[in-house]
Amino acid sequence: MTEFLTATHWGAFYAEVSDGRIVGVRPFEADPHPSPIGASLIGAADHRSRVSAPMVRKGWLDNGPSGKGRGQEPFVCVSWEQATQLVARELERVRQTYGNEAIYGGSYGWASAGRFHHPQSQLKRFLNLCGGFTSSLYSYSFGAGYVILPRVIGKGNDPISNFTSLDVVADHSKILLMLGGAPYKNTQVEAGGVGRHVVPELLRRCRDNGVRIVNVSPIRDDVDAEIGAEWICIRPNTDTAFLLGIAHVVLSEGLHDQAFLARYCVGFDRFESYLLGKADGVSKTPEWAASICGVGADVMRSLARALASSRSVISIAWALQRAHHGEQPYWMTITLAAMLGQIGLPGGGFAIGYGAMASVGVPGPRFNGPAVPQGRNPVETYIPVARISELLERPGETMDFDGRVIRLPDIRLVYWAGGNPFHHHQDLNRFRKAWLKPETVIAHEQVWNGLAKNADIVLPATYTFERNDLSVSSRDSHMFASRQAVAPFGEARNDFDIFAAISAELGFRERYTEGRDEMQWIRWLYEGFAQTSNWLPPFEEFWEKGHVEIPRDRVERPSSILMEDFRRDPAAHPLDTPSGRIEIFSADIAAYDYPDCPGHAAWLEPAEWLGSPKAQDYPLHLMSNQPSGKLHSQLDFGAASLDTKSGGREPIFMNPADAVSRGIRHGDIVRVFNSRGQCLATAHVTSGIGENVVRVSTGSWVDFANTAADGAMETHGNPNVLTLDIGTSRLGQGTSANTCLVEVERFAGTPPPVRAFDPPPIVRLR
């Protein structure tokens, strides 16, 4: 047996190979908290869901480009030569007939932890050389946050990269108030890979140092049980009202830091008028907030006084901005932190995204790792990433976004490499209809997931362990030489080689490859990075050893404190906001006159929530959080993912009171439904979730029992057949996935089987 070090998004592992197959997995020795997802590498290489050769949808091949029949028809196996020619000709046809703006380059970046075999970079490099494409901005994970935070605190103090590290919290804070928690399961992953998972030990250090940790969430295990956090069960989507109630106490009892507000902020007077009800006649008292968020007024009063009298951090999870008006809880968190006056002090202020990924809250250097140069996109047209259904549905129309009016182009061809929109997009029944609009969909995929089954040309791509690469994250402890462990499955090729062949057909292969093959590119990236990093050994030494640890004097630098320089001297270190200060009121946003995003933080009712009339028909609020046994939908068929399912379906977590009132018992198959769709799941009854709230994690491959019918039953437990597909606001246009009401009932009869991992029909072999 031979071992090969392989770097993944969820950590580095030694793949144990015998007779050309991965038969075991051993975690990297320096990782104190390795992810269980590593076990899913076993059996992945030759799973029945792998795409074995280039495939073309029969109707598209026989009748020409058209979305008719997409997702319903069988596929035809073709040669690589034919597939390459088909793709090149179709790209050229669309370019010549409609222009490059008619090509949408879809890729979500999580398909590979490697810095060379990074599908998003390879796709963008290829399409830029091909004349450009309509692109997307930001991410589903943090779309609204990317827009609102620069408006309030400026890009230069973006807490995604300049947050206060958790070791500082452990050593200086008395209270860590966590809106949305910081679950270990999310900290398994990082885009560029993980050498050491350390967030769990940092949170344990907070606990051991006596920090009072308070988890404000509808879900108790949003903070892991061993941390011993207090749990305040709140109604989903009401965190802004909760924070307003606390802020009212701080203001009315004179606990606010007037000197900080005057020196470091602008616009507090406008917000104060709103908070006291002078603007709308509604004073945002704890009693007012309690009627909305379901948390007692006395709890808010007690918290307000504790926060004001102790060094405290208010932490808000990324999940809270993935909801209708998701900008508001972020803005309100910063506003309350400013009122308390502790921003820029050790262990004080606010934090964004503890528990979101492996690097968030971890002390250490931040550096830009090596990356494939993508070139410049000649096409300036773009959309907010989560608005793809509108893009396909409304060609020629316009959309408000971040103070601008953008035009939606007429997309004729979608090219996707990396990511699975049939996992991460919302209202999948609506999305399926919109997906039929383009004439051609081309996808690079390892497996027959929802994207591949709903494409026209499917080009089989390699997995991480079937190729060589280098992996490093910008705030991690190691750089890895990710070694090819097994031969590619079937006729699978690296994305780079696929694009190189198509580039040859289109006449720009040399510009795309720059005369380098895989290992030459890896060496080039490494040595270019080494020129700016004197701690790296020669490439040969690195590749032979398989990893290099970033020197400890770079990792263990003084820990970071958000806005420390700004607090010390706001004139010398102004924020890059219009005022140079924290914008509690933004004149720019107010001038846009968006009814769904005023000029200061405010409580705005979501489109649907437990206090809305729609709750009469759909009385349960669905939370669709990140899964624990996989990253997004990757390796959904793997051992770690299957261990989280029950009867092959995703579990739905529900409160005992909600289960009893519906005659549902633990382990029952249930139908989860609303006006947008329906799916099957397995009931998991637990007191760890609030009443009138249910939870289904994302990532199960979508599996419709009838692919042609509107509202067809999804059998596997994919919550995105239910989630709401609207923008967070006209400002941010992020996803509103966590704004979703449903009903649940016990499923009667024999449930349809789950066939999510089965390949589609292939009717003609070459």
Notes on the structure:
By secondary structure, the chain is α/β, with parallel strands linked by helices. It has three domains: 2-139 and 384-542, Rossmann fold; 148-355 and 563-592, Dimethylsulfoxide Reductase, domain 2 (3-Layer(aba) Sandwich), CATH 3.40.228.10; 613-746, Barwin-like endoglucanases (Beta Barrel). It has 26 helices and 31 strands. A seven-stranded mixed beta sheet has the order 6-17-18-19-4-5-31. Strand 20 and strand 21 (478-482) form a beta hairpin. The mean pLDDT is 95.
Could you give the topology of this structure?
Blueprint: E1 2-8, E2 11-18, E3 21-27, E4 55-57, H1 58-63, E5 75-77, H2 80-98, E6 103-106, H3 119-129, E7 135-137, H4 143-153, H5 159-162, H6 166-172, E8 175-179, H7 199-208, E9 212-216, E10 230-232, H8 239-252, H9 258-264, E11 265-266, H10 268-275, H11 286-293, H12 297-309, E12 312-316, H13 327-340, E13 349-352, E14 382-384, H14 388-393, E15 398-401, E16 404-407, E17 413-417, H15 421-424, H16 428-435, E18 440-445, H17 450-453, E19 457-460, E20 469-472, E21 478-482, H18 495-506, H19 509-513, H20 518-530, H21 539-545, E22 547-549, H22 552-555, H23 564-568, E23 582-583, H24 587-592, E24 620-623, H25 639-642, E25 651-654, H26 656-661, E26 669-673, E27 678-685, E28 693-695, E29 713-714, E30 741-746, E31 762-764
Parallel strand pairs: 5-31, 6-17, 7-14, 8-9, 8-12, 9-10, 11-23, 12-13, 17-18, 18-19, 24-28, 25-27, 27-29
Antiparallel strand pairs: 1-2, 2-3, 4-5, 4-19, 15-16, 20-21, 21-22, 24-30, 25-28, 26-27, 26-30
Helix pairs in contact: 2-18, 3-18, 4-13, 6-7, 8-11, 8-12, 8-13, 11-12
